[in-house]
């Protein structure tokens, strides 16, 4: 019985082109009319500039993770900021190590429409030795029960750069492999 | 600053989809309820109302810009002053405070705050995409933009720092769903057990579908007034008003990218000391600094020294069961790290309701008596105002009148707090409401 209840044809957004609907002679019936619901498509390509953050993406294309460091107070950013949140001064670009540790993590079994087809996927915030802030990335090749805070991870890069933050991702990096 | 009073409010029933009404029609329901509760007819209301503030989060959900003015004209409030407020999940809380400012500054004597969201106009997963656009689209969104994923990472760190458990989170869900069972405005009518919450489909570990609020269509409205405004309303209605005073407001912020948040010292409330948090790096990923600052500022204005003892109830932004636990701590209802134990022992549960749990401290300081976002729903722009309305009715002692039953009415509450929260704790508002003697 339970299976019978669950059996259904999935709803989709496809519809039928309709050019008219039934209409009552008596206008007093109109307030009881069910709502007319139409499909309204919306699609746009943005011209998105990375502006002052652009070198980060150029770095990923060249297999380097770039962060920034404040020229005045020395605070360092794993996700680049070209001005320091601590003192307002300008930051310089620095190269980050390609190994780090998992600061926190999750495994997403659902997601936004754009990423649904990639589920399940792991998100991590990576901490790098000596760097004050973190970097959001994917952790690839491990399942939920293999991930823990503090585990060592190392960077891998896409060969064909897409100029997206996903050009870098991380994999588990056991101690013995780290020196290789 | 002039004293500001909350006079009346209204909420449309939150549901998954209100295809029968446009957003203007939904706000009209909430607005009309606000007037009807005062027996104030529209003509007299129009004479008295000086202006309004509109609250809605996303232009994407409707593909309609300037929705605010379309509500203003539908309500018949043109040509009075109005503006739109937007700040993610905290939009409603910000709107409430903008209306407060209009009164407190002397700019208006009577101001209407109204808010809405129509999230049913896109499918759930597209909706999640729109919400995720409230994260840095250069660095965060493309990695796998998903708000439940972000909050999951925050609570994983909270569990690591403090030993918070998934069962403790599930108890928040049990509490809020059970409370909402007695709230006719709530979207969800289920009474899950801890086991049900944990067995629900996993969305982003450790958060299951029952740890997360749902998308909703809904609207809410609130009327605020100065002393002069109160006199005008009394004159127009020839009625004694059941007043609630807004005795403090506070707001805080934090960096959009969680990755950028500092790891420093805890910002202390008066009843805490630095010794409480010797080895804690703050806020890190586990706590909401914006919530702490908003609370601190609101408490200072209202003269609250120990919120856990001086507040009778709190309506807070529980978009996730985990963020309710984190918010107990930000608001100082318990110390940082004790949020899990706080719910486990029963403090934030309602007195007199059977939750099927052993709760030695049940009802010490009820949190989300209404059922919160987890069970009432979260039509973003309406949410913060919904909390204000439910808190108003709680302090007025009129829950039975509005809900049709007395189960969620606390016995003679004097002071409550409402808390509204945006994207991973970027904007947070706290407002303190007190029953006028
Ligand atoms: Zn600096």
UniProtKB/TrEMBL annotation, chain A:
Q: Which organism is it from?
A: Candidatus Schekmanbacteria bacterium GWA2_38_11
Q: List the InterPro entries.
A: ChsH2_C (IPR002878), ChsH2_Znr (IPR022002), NA-bd_OB-fold (IPR012340), Thioester_dehydratase-like (IPR052513)
The record places domain ChsH2 rubredoxin-like zinc ribbon at 58-90
A Pfam family: OB_ChsH2_C
The source's superkingdom equals: Bacteria
Residue span, ChsH2 C-terminal OB-fold domain: 93-158
User: What is the protein's given name?
Assistant: Nucleotide-binding protein
TrEMBL record, chain B:
According to its UniProt entry, the protein's GO biological process terms are:
lipid transport
* Domain called Thiolase C-terminal: residue spans: 288-435
Alphabetically list the UniProt keywords: Lipid transport, Lipid-binding, Transferase, Transport
Known InterPro entries for this protein?
A: Thiolase, Thiolase-like, Thiolase_C_2, Thiolase_CS, Thiolase_N
Task: Please report the organism this UniProt entry assigns to the protein.
Answer: Candidatus Schekmanbacteria bacterium GWA2_38_11
Which residue ranges does the record assign to the Thiolase N-terminal domain?
A: 12-228
Name under which the protein is recorded: propanoyl-CoA C-acyltransferase
State its Enzyme Commission number(s).
Answer: 2.3.1.176
Q: Which GO terms describe its molecular function?
A: acyltransferase activity, transferring groups other than amino-acyl groups; lipid binding
Q: Which Gene3D superfamilies match?
A: 3.40.47.10
Q: Which SUPFAM superfamilies match?
A: Thiolase-like
């Amino acid at each position: 019985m339970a299976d019978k209840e669950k059996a259904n044809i999935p709803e989709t957004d496809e519809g039928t082109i309709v050019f008219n609907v039934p209409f009552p002679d008596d206008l007093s019936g109109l307030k009881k009319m069910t709502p007319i619901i139409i499909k309204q498509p919306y699609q746009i390509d943005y011209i998105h500039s990375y502006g002052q953050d652009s070198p980060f993406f150029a770095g990923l294309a060249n297999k380097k993770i770039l962060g920034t460091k404040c020229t005045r107070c020395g605070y360092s950013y794993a996700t680049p900021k070209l001005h320091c949140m601590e003192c307002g001064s300008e930051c310089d670009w620095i190269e980050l190590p390609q190994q780090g540790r998992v600061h926190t993590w999750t495994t997403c079994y659902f997601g936004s429409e754009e990423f649904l087809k990639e589920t399940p996927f792991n998100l991590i915030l990576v901490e790098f030795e000596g760097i004050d802030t973190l970097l959001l990335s994917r952790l690839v090749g491990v399942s939920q029960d293999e991930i823990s805070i503090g585990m060592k991870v190392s960077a891998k890069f896409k060969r064909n750069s897409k100029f997206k933050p996903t050009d870098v991702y991380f994999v588990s990096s056991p101690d013995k492999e780290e020196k290789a | 600053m002039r004293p500001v009073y909350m006079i009346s409010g209204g909420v449309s029933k939150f549901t998954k989809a209100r295809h029968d009404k446009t957003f203007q029609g939904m706000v009209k329901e909430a607005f009309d309820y606000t007037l009807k509760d005062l027996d104030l007819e529209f003509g007299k209301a129009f004479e008295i109302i000086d202006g309004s503030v509109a609250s809605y989060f996303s232009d994407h959900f409707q593909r309609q810009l300037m929705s605010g003015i379309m509500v203003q004209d539908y309500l018949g409030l043109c040509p009075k002053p109005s503006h739109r407020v937007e700040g993610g999940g905290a939009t409603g809380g910000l709107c409430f405070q903008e209306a407060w400012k209009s009164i407190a500054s002397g700019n208006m004597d009577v101001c209407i705050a109204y808010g809405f969201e129509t999230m049913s106009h896109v499918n759930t997963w597209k909706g999640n995409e729109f919400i995720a656009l409230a994260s840095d689209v250069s660095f965060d969104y493309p990695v796998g933009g998903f708000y439940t994923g972000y909050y999951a990472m925050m609570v994983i760190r909270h569990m690591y720092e403090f030993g918070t458990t998934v069962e403790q989170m599930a108890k928040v869900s049990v509490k809020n769903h059970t409370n909402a069972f007695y709230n006719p405005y709530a979207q969800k009518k289920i009474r899950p057990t801890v086991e049900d919450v944990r067995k629900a489909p996993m969305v982003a570990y450790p958060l299951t579908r029952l740890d997360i609020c749902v998308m909703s269509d809904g609207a809410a409205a609130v009327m605020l007034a100065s002393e002069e405004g109160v006199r005008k309303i009394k004159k127009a209605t020839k009625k004694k008003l059941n007043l609630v005073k807004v005795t403090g407001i506070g707001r805080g912020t934090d960096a959009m990218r969680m990755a950028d948040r500092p790891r420093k010292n805890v910002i202390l409330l008066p009843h805490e000391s630095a010794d409480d948090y010797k080895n804690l790096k703050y806020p890190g990923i586990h706590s909401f600094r914006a919530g702490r600052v908003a609370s601190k500022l609101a408490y200072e204005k209202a003269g609250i020294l120990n919120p856990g003892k001086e507040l009778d109830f709190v309506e807070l932004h529980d978009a996730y069961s985990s963020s309710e636990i984190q918010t107990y701590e930000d608001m100082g209802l318990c110390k940082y790290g004790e949020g899990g134990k706080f719910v486990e022992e029963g403090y934030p549960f309602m007195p007199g309701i059977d939750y099927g749990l052993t709760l030695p401290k049940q009802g010490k300081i009820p949190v989300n008596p209404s059922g919160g976002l987890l069970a009432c729903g979260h039509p973003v722009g309406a949410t913060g105002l919904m909390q204000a309305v439910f808190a108003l009715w709680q302090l007025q002692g009129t829950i039975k009148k509005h809900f049709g039953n007395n189960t969620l009415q606390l016995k003679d509450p004097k002071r409550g707090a409402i808390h509204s929260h945006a994207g991973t704790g970027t904007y947070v508002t706290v407002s303190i409401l007190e029953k006028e003697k």
